[in-house]
Design brief:
By secondary structure, this protein is an alpha+beta fold. It has a 6-stranded antiparallel β-sheet with strand order 2-1-6-5-4-3. The chain has a 6-stranded antiparallel β-sheet with strand order 13-12-17-16-15-14, sandwiched between helices. The protein has a 5-stranded antiparallel β-sheet with strand order 8-7-11-10-9. Helix 11 runs antiparallel to helix 12, helix 12 packs antiparallel against helix 13 and helix 13 runs parallel beside helix 15. The chain is rod-shaped and about 215 Å long.
Length: 766
């Protein structure tokens, strides 16, 4: 306190307790600090929140704002102030209805104080038109008196989440519905999850039982060491392992074959979360494999036992995939692994005309490349040892369930023996046809000779019948042994035995030699003629027997029937020649056995015309020719036939019956006839007087009738040539164009017409 002069005169002291104030100030400062922290935290949350946040003030003085995530989600900022901004928003309800402004969650919170939680909204971004699925929550902000000051709205883009949830649900459904074993394990090997199919595979009742077993206990005991020593290290080293193992069924203890794999499961940061497996049950596959192996073994057994070769190829390449054992037996080499159709050329085969089979001609190629449903061929295959055989190949395509060609199969049959048999059968059929025609021609010749000039038809009928019986017996002798030869004794026995009385009364003896078939037929008919003539003479049971040689040489006479009668000179000359021929045949047989041969009589060089030898001068106005007759065992001595001023024809035929038939026809037409038994004799007797040659085709010797006809046409174009045969028909080019061919048996008119055509075509000397 101060006095009037301002000097301090006393002091008054007062004390105030500021503790509460201090505390209040401290609390205020703490509150402000916390408020600042909260405001900062809210601002950080507002700005950095992973969801969109919108704050809308109730009055114009209360600010409104959007955080960055909200702007990203909505595709725009606040826009205009007030409720007008909501008109421009493109929000729609889940059912597709457009949001009215009053229906937006923010306005519902501001106007009605409504709290909205998780309302689904479809919002179209104005700039891009993209439709987003939003989950919107909104609530009012009230003051101390409870008045609504603002509304806070939280926007979450749940499209990705919904898609992720859907994918998760689908994945879970896939895992549960899968028939494979799917499991997850922790890094320590404890099991976290096994799907239902996996639990069913090894007999686990529930997930708890699956979690109670470590990984190694899922396997059979003998493979657990492999899992620890091989599988797990491989997973750690390579990140994956797969192979066949066996699970153990916990109820039965049976081994379950599986295709097991194991791989690590890692998080987004690369940290290993555990192990996963998707394991396939191989039980049915093993059963199918075993069944397939059994089926293949059965099929292989069948293929190896079938009598044909089987070859398989795949399509479209044509690669050979295999064949059976029989195929290798047929081909005598292993199945060639041709990689494609173009390589089929290494299979060597030939057509009937000798051309090599091209690769695209084989049935496999035609089926695979050209789409044939069936293909076959016959060819001659060259085997591994160089030999050849005929095979038949037939094939068909192999198709899958859709009908597409996936390969082809062919069957290869060895038809070599069958083809040879067919060739032999064809040859036999041709030979049978030739022999039948030859026999018919022979019957025709016998009938023509018998009936020509006959005056008594009853006698002619009897003579013809007996001659045919003799011919039949001669054929019996031939067919009783070798078809091309017969025993001389058997021929004589049957020939004489045609007449029953002669068969009982005639004795014959001599060497039993084999004679040719043609000679046997000629001898049988000759014996029949002689026996028939002698048979007309009366005989008694006690009459002495005669030798065959005596019978043939002559003996008791008798007159032949009118149908068999010929002029005395010709008959006696022919009989003497035949008898001498039989003796020559017997002598030749004996000489063969003794190693000797009697010399054969030969014509003079140049043929049988004796005019060149001066004989013709002794017979003015006549020419004399010599005919070499053929007996049953070979050439007979020359017989002479003279014909006044006659044309000369050369008949070349080794069959006596046919030679006599043609001779009779030509002599009836005014020809003098010279005979030959083969082509060599014919060329010897082809002299200047011969104007006509009639030749058979098949004859003994190296030259047949076709070659003879060509030779005569070349040497003597002035000579007419006619070819006659019952055994074969000439092919084009076998004969000169002007040489006619007559097939036996023939009509006499046809033969005479051929002779006239041949004479008209010849080129006479000037």
């Amino acid at each position: 306190m101060r006095d009037a002069e301002g000097r301090a005169c006393r002091m008054i002291g007062a004390m105030l307790d500021l503790t509460a104030r201090k505390r209040a100030e401290d609390a205020m400062r703490e509150s402000e600090r916390r408020l600042g922290l909260e405001r900062g935290l809210l601002e950080a949350i507002f700005l950095q929140a992973p969801v969109g946040i919108s704050i809308a003030g109730a009055e114009a003085g209360v600010p409104s704002s959007l955080n960055a995530k909200a702007e990203e989600i909505l595709g725009h900022g606040l826009g205009t102030e007030g409720d007008a901004r909501y008109v421009s928003y493109g929000a729609m309800h889940p059912d597709g209805r457009r949001y009215e402004p009053a229906e937006y969650p923010t306005l519902r919170a501001l106007r009605r104080g409504e709290t909205v939680r998780g309302e689904e909204m479809r919002y179209r971004i104005p700039g891009t038109g993209e439709m987003r699925l939003l989950e919107v929550s909104s609530g009012p902000v009230r003051d101390a008196e409870g008045a609504i000051q603002a509304a806070v709205t939280v926007l979450a883009d749940v499209g990705d989440k919904r898609r992720a949830d859907a994918e998760t649900r689908r994945l879970a459904a896939l895992v549960e519905q899968s028939q494979d074993f799917i499991g997850l394990a922790a890094p320590d090997g404890s099991v976290d999850f096994v799907n239902e199919a996996g639990r069913r595979l090894i007999g686990l009742p529930d997930l708890a039982a699956a979690r109670a077993m470590p990984i190694v206990d899922y396997f059979v005991p003998e493979e657990r060491a492999r899992v620890l020593d091989e599988v797990l290290p491989a997973v750690e080293r390579d990140g994956f392992w797969e192979g066949e193992l066996h699970f153990r069924h916990v109820v039965t203890g049976a081994a379950v074959p599986v295709l097991y794999n194991l791989f690590p499961v890692r998080g987004a940061d690369g940290r290993k979360l555990g192990y996963g497996t998707v394991t396939r049950d191989l039980t049915e596959q093993h059963r199918a494999r075993q069944a397939l192996q059994a089926s293949e073994a059965s099929l292989r057994a069948v293929l190896d036992t079938v009598p044909v070769g089987i070859l398989f190829a795949e399509a479209p390449s044509g690669r050979i995939v295999g064949g059976n054992r029989r195929l290798e037996d047929i081909f005598r080499h292993s199945v060639l692994p041709s990689p494609d159709v173009e390589s089929y050329g290494e299979w060597v085969a030939f057509h009937e005309d000798g051309r090599r089979v091209a690769p695209d001609e084989y049935p496999l190629s035609r089926i695979i490349r050209e789409g044939h449903e069936h293909a076959e061929m016959r060819c001659e295959y060259q085997r591994g040892d160089g030999s050849r055989l005929w095979i038949e190949i037939a094939g068909a395509p192999m198709r899958d369930e859709a009908g597409a060609v996936v390969g082809a199969v062919v069957a290869v049959a060895d038809i070599d023996a069958r083809r040879r048999a067919e060739e032999r059968q064809d040859l036999l059929n041709q030979e049978l046809s030739h022999r039948m025609k030859n026999l018919l021609a022979m019957v025709q010749a016998i009938a023509a000779s018998t009936l020509r000039g006959a005056t008594d038809m009853d006698a002619a009928r009897e003579v013809l019948g007996s001659r045919l019986v003799a011919l039949g017996k001669a054929h019996d002798v031939l067919l009783g042994g070798a078809a091309e030869s017969a025993s001389l004794a058997a021929v004589v026995r049957e020939g004489v035995g045609v007449q029953e009385s002669a068969g009982r009364r005639v004795r014959f003896e001599g060497p039993d030699v084999e004679i040719g078939g043609k000679a046997a037929l000629s001898l049988a008919l000759t014996l029949h003629e002689l026996d028939h003539e002698r048979g007309q003479v009366r005989r008694s049971v006690g009459a002495p027997r005669r030798r065959v040689g005596d019978l043939l040489a002559g003996g008791a006479g008798g007159r032949a029937p009118a149908a068999h009668r010929m002029d005395g000179n010709r008959r006696s000359a022919g009989r003497a020649a035949i008898a001498k021929g039989v003796r020559v045949a017997a002598d030749r047989a004996r000489a063969d056995r003794a190693g000797q041969r009697r010399p054969r009589p030969r014509l003079p060089p140049g043929g049988g015309d004796l005019r060149r030898r001066g004989v013709a001068g002794r017979l003015p106005g006549r020419r004399m020719t010599m005919r070499r007759n053929e007996g049953p065992a070979g050439p007979l001595p020359l017989a002479m036939t003279d014909a006044p001023n006659a044309k000369t024809a050369l008949v070349v035929e080794d069959e006596m019956i046919f030679r006599l038939e043609v001779r009779d026809l030509l002599e009836a037409d005014g020809y003098a006839v010279v005979e030959a038994g083969n082509a060599a004799q014919a060329l010897e007797r082809l002299d200047d007087w011969v104007v006509l040659v009639v030749t058979d085709v098949r004859m003994p010797g190296p030259m047949d009738g076709l070659a003879l006809a060509r030779e005569v046409a070349c040497r003597r174009p002035d000579v007419a040539v006619v070819v006659v045969s019952a055994q074969m028909r000439p092919r084009p080019g076998d004969l000169p164009g002007h040489v006619p061919f007559v097939e036996r048996p023939f009509l006499e008119s046809r033969f005479r017409d051929a002779v006239r055509r041949a004479e008209a075509a010849r080129t006479p000397y000037p």
